[in-house]
Specification:
Length: 125
């Protein structure tokens, strides 16, 4: 039987407080949410490309392709919403990931066919 708080709602120490989470996220500017998601996509793509200390242990180019493509789509869609102050380093990071993907591929994609190049155009070293 779970305990109840004075307000009558169940009180489980292991359950997240979704109302508090919603209040917290409501205070975060959209630009910060977009940039945070982009950085998380970049980090995950770097891991899947084998660019971390663990190297090839987590390398999975199929997964990396999806993450880089999603990052490119997010940046393309949010270009007018975030300032160049935020967008420029994210675009640079995206290009670095696209180039790393091309280098890691046994059979590189044709220019313009790599992950995210639908949004960025062909990426050259």
């Amino acid at each position: 039987m779970s305990e109840t708080s004075p307000s009558g709602s169940p009180e489980n120490s292991g359950d997240p407080d979704f109302d508090a989470m919603a209040r917290d996220i409501a205070e975060v500017p959209a630009v910060e949410v977009i940039v945070t998601v982009a950085v998380n996509l970049m980090s995950a793509a770097a891991v899947k490309l084998g660019l971390t200390e663990e190297g090839d242990q987590h390398k999975d180019l199929d997964e990396a392709r999806k993450l880089v493509h999603a990052l490119a789509g997010l940046l393309d869609a949010s270009t007018t919403e975030i300032s160049s102050f935020h967008a420029a380093p994210l675009r640079d990071g995206l290009k670095s990931l696209q180039l790393a993907f091309r280098e890691a591929s046994l059979v590189p994609d044709e220019p313009g066919q790599g992950p995210g190049e639908k949004y960025t155009g062909p990426v050259y070293g």
